[in-house]
Write a structure and sequence with these properties.
The structure is a single chain. The chain folds into two domains: 84 residues, Urease, subunit C, domain 1, CATH 2.30.40; 291 residues, Alpha-Beta Barrel (TIM Barrel). Helices cover 36% and strands 19% of the residues. The chain has eleven helices and 16 strands. Strands 5-4-8-16 form a four-stranded mixed sheet, with no helix packed on it. A four-stranded parallel sheet has the order 12-13-14-15. Strands 3-6-7 form a three-stranded antiparallel sheet, with no helix packed on it. Strand 10, helix 3 and strand 11 form a beta-alpha-beta unit. Helix 5 packs across helix 6. The longest helix has 23 residues. It binds zinc ion. The site of zinc ion has 4 residues, from loops.
C-alpha cells in the first residue's frame, strides 16, 4: 500500500503494518499536536497516535518520518479532469483521440496523489472521460485519488456548457431522457444554472438557463435517487435561482450577495467559490488579457475574497474547489493556490484546512474522507513538512 507524501511530492510505498515516529499531526477531529508522536498502523489503518515525552527515545523506529506531520489527505471539490488548463480549444480537439486524453488524465491522477490530494469531485465533460477515470481508479486499474463524478452536466441546449453536457431543449425533453441520463451513472447531479462571468465586463454573467421551478424538478429527481445537486451559478439572478431551487452546493458563485449567504446558511447550502480561475491569472501574469480585463479581474477577485470571509463569519458551509483544468488552474498544484486564496480572504489557516478536508468530504457525500483518527486508512492521509 501507499501513503501520499506531499512534503516531497511523492507517494511512499509502505507495509500493511508498521510504526514510526512523526513530528506531530493535525486533523479536524484531533486538533493540532506538534510534539513527537509514535504512529502505529495495522491492516493499513491507523492503530494509535501516542505523543512521546521530550527526551523519550523509541527503539522501534522504522521509517524516516520524524520531520513530517500527519494530516488527512486534501479533497478538491471542483475539477475537470478532461481539461488541461493550457488550451481549452486544443483540448476539446484532442478529445477525438481518447487514448491521448486517457494518458494525460493518468498523469493528473498521479500528480494528485503526490500532492496529498486523495479525492476529487469532477464537474463533468460530455464524452465522460472523468467518469471513465473514476471507474478505472475504483477497479484498481489506474492509480489515483477517489473520483466523485457528475459524469455529464445538465445544461440547456444551445446555451453555455456544450462541452459539459448534451443540452436539453426544455423540461419535457429532460423528462423523456432522464432515465437514460441517470442510467449512464452519476455520483452527483450538476446543473448549469448560468453562463460564465466576463473578464471584460464587471457584474455581467451569461444568461440563466432554467427557471426556479425547472431547477426544482432536477433537484427533486436527484434527491429522490439519493444524489446531491451541484449548481454552476454566478450573478444575483443565477444564484437566487440556485438557492430557490434547493441545490446542495453552489459552484463559483461570483457576485454573491449577503442575502444569498444568509439564505444559504439557513438551508445548509454549501459554497465552493473557486477563486483560482480568477486569481491565478493575476498571480501568474499572462499576455492573454488586456489591461481592461486585468482591472476587471482584480475587482472580481477583491469582491469574491470579501464575500468568502463574510460567508465564513456567517457560518455558511464553505468548500475548497479549484476548477482545475481551467486556464492557469493546473491539476493538483492549484489546490495550494486555492488554499492560499481562502487564507488571503482572512480565514484562519487551520479553518481553511478543515474546509479542504472535513467540509469537502461532506460536500462529496463521503464523510469518511477528510479525517484522521484511529481506524483511518493510511492511503487517505498525507505527510507534510509544516503547516
Ligand atoms: Zn466546473
Amino acid at each position: 500500500m501507499y501513503i501520499s507524501c506531499s512534503a516531497e511530492r511523492t507517494i511512499l510505498q509502505i507495509p500493511e503494518e508498521g510504526e514510526t515516529i512523526i513530528a506531530g499531526y493535525w486533523s479536524p477531529e484531533l486538533g493540532l499536536c506538534t510534539q513527537s508522536v509514535l504512529l502505529t498502523w495495522k491492516d493499513g489503518k491507523v492503530k494509535a497516535l501516542l505523543p512521546l515525552g521530550h527526551l523519550e527515545s523509541h527503539p522501534g523506529k522504522l521509517l524516516q518520518w520524524d520531520s513530517y506531520l500527519l494530516l488527512p489527505g486534501w479533497l478538491d471539490a471542483h475539477v475537470h479532469l478532461a481539461l488541461d488548463s493550457l488550451d481549452f480549444y486544443q483540448c476539446l480537439e484532442n478529445w477525438a483521440q481518447p487514448s491521448l486524453i486517457e494518458e494525460t488524465i493518468k498523469g493528473f491522477l498521479q500528480r494528485y496523489l503526490e500532492m496529498g490530494i486523495i479525492a476529487i469531485r469532477d464537474g463533468g465533460d460530455l464524452p465522460g472521460f472523468a467518469w471513465l477515470a473514476k471507474n478505472k481508479v475504483k477497479e484498481g486499474a489506474w492509480s489515483g485519488p477517489r473520483v466523485i463524478s457528475v459524469h455529464e452536466a445538465v445544461n440547456r441546449g444551445g446555451m453555455y456548457g456544450r462541452f459539459l453536457g448534451r443540452g436539453f431543449k426544455d423540461l419535457s425533453d429532460w423528462q423523456k431522457k432522464k432515465i437514460d441520463f441517470f442510467g449512464q451513472g452519476v455520483d452527483q447531479l450538476k446543473v448549469v444554472v448560468t453562463g460564465l462571468i466576463r473578464f471584460d465586463d464587471y457584474q455581467k454573467v451569461g444568461p440563466s438557463q432554467w427557471a426556479v421551478e425547472e431547477l426544482r424538478e432536477f433537484v427533486e429527481e436527484a434527491h429522490g435517487r439519493g444524489i446531491s445537486v451541484m449548481a454552476h451559478a454566478s450573478g444575483e439572478e443565477g444564484i437566487s435561482i440556485a438557492v430557490g431551487g434547493g441545490v446542495d452546493s453552489i459552484e463559483h458563485g461570483y457576485y454573491m450577495t449577503t442575502r444569498h449567504l444568509e439564505l444559504m446558511r439557513e438551508k445548509g447550502i454549501a459554497w465552493v467559490p473557486t477563486v483560482a480561475p480568477i486569481g491565478n491569472v493575476l498571480k501568474y501574469p499572462t499576455e492573454r488579457y488586456s489591461s481592461h480585463e486585468i482591472e476587471t479581474l482584480k475587482r472580481i477577485l477583491e469582491a469574491q475574497l470579501v464575500k468568502i470571509y463574510e460567508a465564513y463569519r456567517l457560518n455558511v458551509r464553505l468548500g475548497v474547489g479549484t476548477d482545475a483544468g481551467a486556464y492557469r488552474v493546473p491539476h493538483a498544484e492549484s489546490l495550494y493556490d486555492e488554499l492560499d486564496w481562502m487564507i488571503q480572504a482572512g480565514i484562519p489557516k487551520l479553518e481553511v484546512y478543515r474546509m479542504a478536508t472535513y467540509e469537502n468530504a461532506r460536500i462529496f457525500g463521503n464523510p469518511e474522507l477528510g479525517t484522521l483518527d484511529v481506524g483511518t486508512p493510511m492511503n487517505q492521509l498525507q505527510l507534510v513538512k509544516d503547516l
